[in-house]
Amino acid sequence: MLIASVELNPALEPVNWLLGTWESDEPGQGGFHSIKPFSYTEKLHFSHMGQPAMYFMFSASPEDSSKPSHRECGFIRMQPKTNRVAFIIAQDSGLVEIEEGELTGNQLNLQTQKLERISFASKPHVQQMCRVIQLRPDGKLEQTVSMATDKQPLTQHLHIITCRQLS
To answer: Can you give the pTM of this predicted structure?
Structure first.
């Protein structure tokens, strides 16, 4: 939740364009070598509480349902006075990761730096994630996620475009 009375920490100014709630108005597309292609919707929420970390929550659902099928939450941190950014992510599948990368204009390019999973996570195990999030000139947020497992090389897994929701 965005606390209006709390000023944004200056460390987060470079990524303030993420703040708010975003929802897909058209289904995104997903797939991977080991699963059938699928369509999905997603709601993204980015907020802050004045600290040098932004909170986020992503919730994805099958195109024909509002019941979430996948969730991710975590924090975004910027290295002060640089374009270096980190996402600290926990997924409902039991995967926890740190993605780091760079902010160039209104585009984040991230890749896995550290990845851990619960001991009974389903196989194949994810080995690497790459994520590109960009604010397009039309004001929409576009996200592309690529994934590698212990059986498949890095391949595009998800692509979705979301629109900012008015409060």
So the answer is: 0.93
Cα–Cα distances in angstroms (integers) from residue 109 to residues 5, 35, 86, 112, 130, in the given order: 31, 25, 10, 11, 8
Q: DSSP letter at 118?
A: -
Do the beta carbons of residue 5 and residue 17 sit within 8 Å?
no
User: What would the two tokens of residue 163 be?
Assistant: 């629109």
Question: Nearest 5°: phi and psi at 150?
Answer: -70, -5
pLDDT tens digits for 70-118?
999 999 999 989 999 999 999 999 999 999 999 999 999 999 999 999 9
Backbone φ and ψ for 16, nearest 5 degrees, come out as -65, -20
Peptide bond before residue 124 is cis, with ω within 30 degrees of 0: yes
- List of residues 6+ apart from 14 with CB closer than 8 A: 78, 83, 85, 103
Distance CA(139)–CA(163), nearest Å, equals 7
Alpha-carbon span 95 to 121, nearest angstrom: 8
141-149 and 126-135 beta bridge pairing: antiparallel
Residues 52 and 8: their CA atoms lie apart, in Å, by 8
